[in-house]
Every structure is written in structure tokens, then in C-alpha cells.
Specification:
The chain has helices at 2-16, 49-65, 73-76, 81-86, 105-119, 137-146, 173-189; strands at 34-37, 69-72, 88-92, 127-131, 150-153. It is of the alpha/beta class. The chain has one domain: Rossmann fold. Strands 3-2-1-4-5 form a 5-stranded parallel β-sheet, with helices on both faces. Helix 1 (2-16) runs antiparallel to helix 7 (173-189).
């Protein structure tokens, strides 16, 4: 019965929870061992407005905490060269399993986990600062926790949507919600969140 109730609660969250509480320094951002940064869409002729804003947050976090960074290619292209040489330890560019397949959040986080384990970028608790678009954070955080990460959430409230994104669902809030709710439900059914 408890398992069924938890499933119902999580199903309701899939439809209605869009904000994730940011971690603060008191909540051990400084005790994290890695920064994980997930992109949000991609512009027509650039990484896009959303990814530029995410890159600024990654840069600020790195300057404060000097942690290794695992990042998607759309964000890394917005980071200054010295930061890339000094802080970026891995760039996630494509799926490991099936070439030409869409690189989804699950695959990105699985690669993050593998990179952390292989390169010892995280301790036994895999404490990570998560950087993602504010409306992407709920699902991303849940999935990362399922994979064994202890997640501290970066403040990404300033990250906008990009109306010129190639991915229609990352162009505005309405489009994103229309795609995200079914995606969350599929991930819930698969046991990923």
C-alpha cells in the first residue's frame, strides 16, 4: 500500500511540481565534489540563450568552489578558454550506446555517473552541484538521486527559455510543460525518477 501511495504522490508531482529548492552554502554546496551541467536546447546558429546563462552559472560556481566540471557540449562552448583548460574534466557530446540517437537526460546522467566513478571526481557519496534549466531541475534531480548522487541544486532561476532553439519544447514554458509532463510519467513508469 505504501509503495502505491508513493507512486500516486510521485505521479501528482510529475504534473504539478515545477520548482526545486536551491541549495545554499549552509546546505553544503562547498562540500560537493563535482559540478554537473546539463544543457537546455540549442540555438540555430549558437549554443543558445539558455546555455549561455547556464555557462555563466557554471563559471561562477567554479570560481567559488574550484570543483571539476562535467558538462554538455552546448554549455562548454560558452565557457572561457582558461576555465575549460582548468576546470572542465569531461564533455558529454553523444550517446554511448546508439549513435545518432537523441542524447536524453537519462543518458547524460548515466555518463556523468560513469565519469565520476572512473575518474574519482566524486567521493563515495557522489556529492554533486547540479546545474540545469529551472524547469528541468525536478526531473534531473530525481534521476540523479536514483543513480546514487547526493544532489545540491544550483540557483538557476535566471536561466531563460530560448525562442530560437532548435528543440521546440525548449522555446517557451508552455511548450516545455506540454512535453515534460508525459516525459516525467514515462520516466516514472520506467523507475527512473
Amino acid at each position: 500500500m505504501k509503495k502505491f501511495l508513493r507512486l500516486i504522490v510521485r505521479l501528482v508531482e510529475c504534473c504539478f511540481v515545477w520548482r526545486v529548492k536551491n541549495s545554499t552554502h549552509q546546505e553544503n554546496l562547498k562540500d560537493s565534489t563535482v559540478i554537473l551541467a546539463l544543457s537546455f536546447g540549442v540555438g540555430l546558429d549558437s549554443p543558445g540563450k539558455s546555455n549561455k546563462a547556464l555557462a555563466e552559472i557554471v563559471r561562477d560556481l567554479y570560481n567559488q568552489h574550484k570543483l571539476p566540471i562535467i558538462v554538455q557540449k552546448e554549455i562548454v562552448s560558452c565557457l572561457p578558454g582558461p576555465l575549460c583548460e582548468e576546470g572542465v574534466r569531461a564533455i558529454i557530446r553523444e550517446p554511448r550506446r546508439v549513435r545518432e540517437k537523441y542524447l536524453d537526460t537519462r543518458e547524460i546522467l548515466e555518463q556523468c555517473k560513469s565519469l565520476c566513478s572512473d575518474n574519482q571526481y566524486a567521493d563515495l557519496d557522489m556529492k554533486a552541484i547540479l546545474v540545469a534549466h529551472p524547469h528541468h531541475l525536478w526531473r534531473t534531480k530525481r534521476m540523479a538521486e536514483k543513480l546514487g548522487f547526493v544532489i545540491h541544486v544550483a540557483n538557476t532561476k535566471s536561466v531563460p527559455y530560448d525562442r530560437r532553439s532548435r528543440q521546440w519544447w525548449t522555446r517557451n514554458q508552455l511548450f516545455y510543460f506540454l512535453r515534460e509532463v508525459p516525459t516525467r510519467i514515462v520516466y516514472l513508469i520506467r523507475g527512473w525518477i
